[in-house]
Amino acid sequence: MTTSRPRVLIEDWLPVAELGIESRRERGAASALPPLSFLHVWWARRPLVASAAVALAGVMPAWTEELAESFPEAPELRTESAYRAWLLRLVGILGDPVKGRRMIDAANAAGVKLQGNGYGYRQAFRNAVSRSDIDLLHTVLRRTWGELPTIADPTAGGGSIPWAASRLGLPVVANDLSGVAASVLKAGVEIPATRGLDLLPDIRKWGDVLVKRVEKRLKEFFPLNEGESVIAYIWANAVPCPRTGRLVPLLRDKWLRKAPGKEAAVRMVTSAEGIELREPRFEVILGREVDKADASTGTMARGKAVSPYDNLVIDGDYIKEAAQSGDMDQLLYAVAVRKPSGERTFRAPNEADLQALQAANRTFNAVKDEWFDAGILPTEEFPEGNDLRPKHYGLDRWVDFFTPRQALVHGTFGEEFARLVPEVRETLGEAADQV
Hints:
Layout: H1 16-26, H2 35-39, H3 48-57, H4 65-70, H5 80-90, H6 97-110, H7 131-145, E1 151-153, H8 160-167, E2 172-174, H9 179-195, H10 200-218, E3 229-240, E4 247-249, E5 255-257, E6 264-272, E7 275-286, H11 292-295, E8 300-301, E9 304-306, E10 313-314, H12 316-324, E11 329-338, E12 344-347, H13 351-374, H14 389-392, H15 404-428
Parallel strand pairs: 1-2
Antiparallel strand pairs: 3-4, 3-11, 5-6, 6-7, 8-9, 9-10, 11-12
Helix pairs in contact: 1-3, 3-8, 8-9, 10-15, 13-15
């Protein structure tokens, strides 16, 4: 082990332009993201290619003639330019992304469509590092540090840096204060790195069993129109109007989508055939039919609301009191769907949707106490801290952050998972500890 820290590559050079382009390519299409991104949605996920480059450049020695002479049979270290090109290869950049980006921009400006992706190679994270490159890297690092250096990331979040380092066979120490992040690290980095591909058949088999059981139990609560798939259910909190007792949805505006030519918004209906409704119904308006002025007008702003029934103000303190006393409700006011053609659009909740919600509420109310006692759902108190807004709106426990149907989904999954564990152990015996 050296007694003084050697000069490292990042102190002399980092391919910022190349990494910037590759980082954008990495997230260029929602359907082609790195698999790690699909494990859990992380709000500040670092690009894998940039994470790999920074981690590597922080431990690889700066190029010197002495370094090249120490590895006479390695062309990757023969010259400084070759050494830098090797770093790019180690992180999966197998061409010149700057040149590729220029070609794409020129083609776009000329209205010409390039063959292929314009770069001549796949996104960096898709390109496996060869065994010979990893072996040479380890040899260089051991010569520099006396042993393989450990990559430490104490606030690892979604796991980009630990994943990139593990892929190169480097020791990693990583953690995070968030239990979700720690779970993502274990499932997305630690287990694949230590267990390898041998786990896949059993993971897929038992994962399919779990998913099918959960789907069977929940299918009735998520009705579909023929040929559609649901992207998202769109909700609003609601409180009783203090004067009429009718539900007031708390909406900052009625927009669903503002993209030019693809506008979508909801229209609120408070009466039907001369009869005042206890809660409003919603119609989805698309394209040119959208009244932009109405769509930009909601029922709530700056903590206060306006009742759509008498157009009078509902005080913010009343809203908080209603929430804290259990009188805040949730209204489903739109459903984002994908049609068989692949088009994404919106529709209003139909009768089947509303009946399914009622059935889900009844089912959840029947099982919630049992689930709470079993610890299947998180009933811990929301912690005191700098942000007390959840408590102001009646969200005293973590489970209160979910609608009844959402809690039913989480509870069903947790219950089926707990039931599956002894089955896996009985079937696989001692090998179950590896799954």
